[in-house]
Description:
23 strands, five-stranded parallel sheet, alpha/beta
Amino acid sequence: MDYCEREQEGKRLHDPLISGKKAERCVWVPGPVIVGAGPSGLAAAACLKEKGVASVILERSNCIASLWQLNTYDRLRLHLPKQFCQLPLMGFPSNFPTYPTKQQFIRYLESYAEHFAIQPRFNEAVKEAEFDSSLGLWRVKTTTATEFVCRWVIVATGENAEAVVPEIEGRGEFGGTIKHTSLYKSGGEFKGKKVLVVGCGNSGMEVCLDLCNHNATPSLVVRDTVHILPREMLGKSTFGLSMWLLKWLPIQLVDRLLLIVSWLMLGNTSRFGLDRPPLGPLQLKNLSGKTPVLDVGTLAKIKSGHIMIRPGIKRLRRHTVEFVDGRIEKFDAIIFATGYKSNVPYWLKEGDMFSKEDGYPKKPFPNGWKGENGLYAVGFTKRGLLGASMDAKNIAKDIERCWKAEAKHSTFSLSLLPQSVS
């Protein structure tokens, strides 16, 4: 089936006058459908627009970057310098600080969408996307009873689509506040209270610091080893310094240098219950995607005793937590800083590109952005906004090639049609 036939079939698909079906409204999209209007989806749309390819973004929420706007705490800043977090084709304003605040980053994304005239279709949650091999087209069905038919689908729902909350025995008995960090805004809510934070990643560490600053008494559950690095080393960002060193030195040596400087600046973290993994921070990141913690002041609070370290939780009782080491302690609230997961397996009906277990592309970085039959992924690299930008550029270049080839074929086909005689 050539481009012209596909377009006509897409336009006629489910036409009630032809098929008799009235349950769904069908929309033909000549360009790609992008699922998700976060930074990844915006980057993909902007890169496509630069190539002359129009797209449609479907977003389940009522705004762009809903994770940032609706599900992050007030004190959040970018953990990396702004030059490593900007999207393709448009940098941050020069007057923004090195580490922009949450509000500044949202303003940047809104300006980005306005600059490239990106207008997502909000409150349009995708419930199913499946490739129709008989047509050579994708059918993308949403909760508004609309079916979008297109040649390409770009999955931009990202690594942080759904909050992960572990099942813990006795949760129903606890009686106090239990929430995920996606619902946490400020430590002001917990002033004067004892709070247990579960999870020692960047979010867990920062929430503990925020609680301290609001006169709460936090404890931190550390169930695994963790690399803690200073946010800056030798007057430069740790991440930027790492990227520069990797140009000249092998990753094992860079890891060793990072750990030596970290030990000099932060001391032996294992003394405080924060054991380091046997693998270096950069090697561990490449292997598992686990990001080292960039300390912004939490470690000092741990050293001073303002934040206590606790092991894993065995079970909960009425305002009480029993830990795996037998300790029993009372708390007013529990906050789960246990991260997020992909939701792709719930709605994408295909088994080749994405893993059903974790919802990530099966191919390792940097090859996970392209699948079969016009399916793409942006923002699943475990390398933050830099990885998403790389994906967006690759996808736009690949679709542009197909777009131009099919447009040329379409023009050639039309030129063969008989001309009307006046």
